[in-house]
Amino acid sequence: MEQAAILHLEDITKHYDQHTTPAVDRVTLTLRQGDLLGLLGPSGCGKTTLLRIVAGFERPQSGLVVLAGHPVAGSGYWTPPEQRNTGMVFQDYALFPHLNVAENVAFGLKNRRSGMNRTSIKKNTADAIALVGLSGLEKRYPHELSGGQQQRVALARALAPRPSLILLDEPLSNLDVQVRLRLRQEVRSILKEIGTSAIFVTHDREEALSISDQVGVMRAGCLEQLGTPEEIYTNPASRFVAEFVTQANFLPARRRGQLWETEVGSFEISNRECPNNIQFPNDAIPDSGELMLREENVILKPDNDAPLLIRDRHFLGREYRYCLQTPSGKELHARTALNTPLPVGIRVQLSVADPSIPIFPTITTSTPITPAYSATGWAMGNGQ
Ligand code: ADP
């Protein structure tokens, strides 16, 4: 059975200043009950503004926000933040320094309109603290906790009133990388354990892909693509999503007969449709475009006559990342297994493991940036 929607945004637009481009531009999306939506995009693309619109801290100029089946903003509706039954977790924890862990977590319960009695407040507080793994630290003050522990307190405080939706604004950005990696999986497990829906704002693609059920990629206020992490990664809907979410090279190519010619070799035009299944409007194969070569799909073979030069090699623990230079000076990257390291300074032939390579129209101001046809994965020799 289809899960019910916890949140529906319809055509949401928000201008801070009517003379500038909107911070959020006609965003429509639906979040299913129990799902975790990762809102991903570069700084300034409107993620926080969208989150604040859902929380009720900002009013959209147009569009409709429907929370748990009730319109809360737009079309004459307005429900203030404290009545929306959402919980918020901020990047900087925002704990009260003069209150201990238990008092911080209980704070929202005491101030709630629900009028919980003391026994319920105590129980909800203890449950929330246990849920985030901080039992035993109830009497500690924020300055006596690590950053990760402080963020757990903030999460417990947001969860204690048992909101229908949790909104997390870059909650892990202030933590060091080890804590961050551990905590992001824990946050997901905790939310899944209690079945709470959430929106998680981040500019870190790996974070978004690893913890979300759905990822929304934003660009300049618009929702560029919404899909599962797998869909976003394998079928990016635009050149922007492809560049932001995947680690890919974009190699200019010209079509000649059945081949895409590039400065590092030629690739056969595939009969298979591009995975994205998005084609040019007039359905004609273009004469030029850019091949999208994922770093992890590139295969390198030593060849003294090949056009590509290995300029550098980085050891990443589980793989090597090669920095390659094309004859025109363009930089390409490849990530390969550790078993056959190639020395810096040699020339290599490039091929691609994936049978179909997305091809994007060359970007000019007038061309669309959605991918078109695909190519197959073997360079047929130096295309110069
Ligand atoms: P993100 O969270 O993706 O970094 P924001 O939602 O914070 O993006 O910002 C989106 C755009 O709105 C940016 O151009 C930012 O400068 C602008 N903006 C954000 N908050 C305000 C504000 N309170 N007043 C005016 N402009 C704002």
What does this protein look like?
Pfam families: ABC_tran, TOBE_2. The protein has helices at residues 47-55, 101-110, 118-131, 147-159, 177-194, 205-211, 229-234, 239-245, and strands at 5-14, 24-32, 36-40, 62-67, 70-74, 77-78, 86-89, 165-169, 197-202, 214-219, 222-227, 248-256, 259-262, 265-269, 288-294, 298-302, 308-315, 320-325, 331-336, 347-352, 357-360, 374-379. A hairpin with a 2-residue loop joins β13 and β14. It has a 6-stranded mixed sheet, with helices on both faces. It has a 6-stranded antiparallel beta barrel with strand order 12-13-14-22-21-15. It is an alpha+beta fold and 384 residues long. Residues 273-281, 365-370 and 380-384 have low confidence and may be disordered. The protein folds into 2 domains: 5-234, Rossmann fold (3-Layer(aba) Sandwich); 248-376, no CATH class. The protein is globular, with a radius of gyration of 25 Å. The structure holds adenosine-5'-diphosphate (ADP). Residues 16, 23, 41, 43-49 line the site of adenosine-5'-diphosphate (ADP). Adenosine-5'-diphosphate binds at residues 16, 23, 41, 43-49.
